[in-house]
Amino acid sequence: MMNHFRRNALQLTLAALFSSAFYAQAADIPQVKVTVTDKQCEPMNVTVKAGKTQFIIQNHSQKALEWEILKGVMVVEERENIAPGFTQKLTANLQPGEYDMTCGLLTNPKGKLTVTGEATKDAAKADALLSLGEAITAYKAYVTAETAELVSGTKAFTDAVKAGDIEKAKALYAPTRQHYERIEPIAELFSDLDGSIDAREDDYEKKAEDPKFTGFHRLEKALFGDNSVKGMDNYADQLNADVLELQKRISELAFPPSKVVGGAAGLIEEVAASKISGEEDRYSHTDLWDFQANIDGAQKNRRPAASAAAEREQRAAGEGGRQLQKSGYHSQQIPHQRRLRDL
């Protein structure tokens, strides 16, 4: 009973802290309403002027929604964890050009977003307002090191899967994935790889039976749900290749300061909004590893910053960690056997 109460207290505390943080917007910004259904966006084609636009995203689908604006495979802006039946707002400062909008399931067609007019000074200098100084350099070094650990860990993990060593693969699953969770604010900038590496079965129309469902969670289901790795060799090879491609792209990436600064709040907010329910690692029940990794990654983003918004996000990351501890979660290495269902 005490453990059940502790888990409920943790969920309520985190939700209260982060459910409405950082999204207040000026009233004079143009607004565009986008409704996401189970099959598409309504409308599927949107045109706005360059500069700031506030998107009002209504989730009329049957699952929690992550709505993204994409430029090629790169995520430009996103709003995560929009529950079914709920509406959230996203203010984007966009340059002229052609963009895509995600519309629910990864198997759904993408909408088209056209931005017209001339480049705005505010949009062009948005990231330049934050220094590309020692803090960004240090964070990139951290992400680079974690990515290297992810590559080596994934190789060992997928080798165990292909060898049919189920117990070894199970033991390696959570320790390997934690490296991805620590760098999630950067890794998820690459929408194609993030979907291939870390998507959940709920992101696909046919769920676990969808052939496009790949990555860590596909192998998690095989290992912990089916207790069989039959037919998993191709999925293991693809995961290994995707992680290597992620390492390559990160090495070539100029880290966007706004994404680095916002990463701390984003990581903790995701724990509060969805991961606390145990839905991500639903077969292995190793969610506490994810919580720890998200806290680790968020703490690397806590630094003095030029803007008040950045300072608020850093305080949120620190407060989130303190509230996690008050609710019974302690920032320390978690044994493989300690799982969310045991709380």
Automatic annotation (TrEMBL):
Residues 135-300 form the Imelysin-like domain. The lineage of its organism: Bacteria, Pseudomonadati, Pseudomonadota, Gammaproteobacteria, Enterobacterales. Involved in Fe(2+) uptake. Could be an iron-binding and/or electron-transfer component. It is found in: Periplasm. Residues 13-115 form the EfeO-type cupredoxin-like domain. Residues 299-343 are annotated as: Disordered. Keywords: Signal. NCBIfam families: EfeO (NF041757), PRK10378.1 (NF007697). This is Iron uptake system component EfeO. Its main location: periplasm. Residues 1-26 form the signal peptide. GO terms for cellular component: periplasmic space. Belongs to the EfeM/EfeO family. The keyword Disulfide bond does not apply. CDD domains: Imelysin-like_EfeO (cd14656). Residues 324-335 have a biased composition (Polar residues).
